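Subject: Re: docking follow-up (flavin mononucleotide)

Dear J.,

Thanks for your patience while I sorted out the input files. As discussed at Tuesday's group meeting, I've set up the holo structure prediction with flavin mononucleotide included as the bound ligand rather than trying to dock it afterwards. The sequence and the ligand SMILES I used are pasted below, so you can double-check that they match what you have on your end before we go further.
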Amino acid sequence: MPTVAVVYHSDYGHTKVVAESIARGAGGVDGVEAVLIAVDELPAPGPDRVLGGRWPELDAADAIIFGSPTYMGTVSAAFKRFMESSGGIWYRQGWKDKLAAGFTNAGGLSGDKLSTLLDLALFASQHSMIWVSQGLFYDDEGINRMGSWIGMMAQSTDDPPEVTPPPEDHKTAELFGERVAHATLRWARGGGRR
Ligand SMILES: Cc1cc2nc3c(=O)[nH]c(=O)nc-3n(C[C@H](O)[C@H](O)[C@H](O)COP(=O)(O)O)c2cc1C
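The structure tokens for the complex came back this morning:
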């Protein structure tokens, strides 16, 4: 069954709950399995360059949705560590032609979230992945309330992750997960990766 992996980092739990909503949306599409993987479960390679933890599961996914909080206008250090740990995969272009998409969560309405999404899109491009944009128009219900196109944005206050980000962002996240899942189905049915 085509698999969508959602790979995320979250220090304080807000990006984690967005990742969960995206995985719920993706996994709700018939014929698609969604897996949620925290970067803490993807240890850096040792001297033997072997990637343990959940790396093999990630490697097997048909699509990967990358998610990081925005810290200082870019991805978090832990997420960057994950990006650099994928260097061996990059070297053999092991993720070439997998689908990719990205999301971020930050304290500010802007908060320079676009910069984080651009970093994620560039990272996916270095891996020769096929980028899936957000694809949701903003509306009066608060879907895509920050008007992002390249990837999905959520915004949290300092309240606990049980109450922030708001329901609109969770709904946006679910729809975004669905979109990537449908794209994955089409990609897999059409032959997918060469
Ligand atoms: C070190 C650090 C840097 C941050 N930098 C930004 C930033 O550049 N823009 C922003 O809007 N929020 C920034 N924030 C706020 C976080 O994006 C926000 O608290 C987010 O919800 C944290 O996600 P998490 O709960 O998944 O860790 C920063 C927070 C920390 C701890």
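A couple of observations from a first look. Residues 10-16, 69-73, 105-108, 111-112, 156 surround flavin mononucleotide (CB under 6 Å). The first helix runs from residue 14 to 27.

Let me know if you'd like me to rerun anything.

Best regards,
T.
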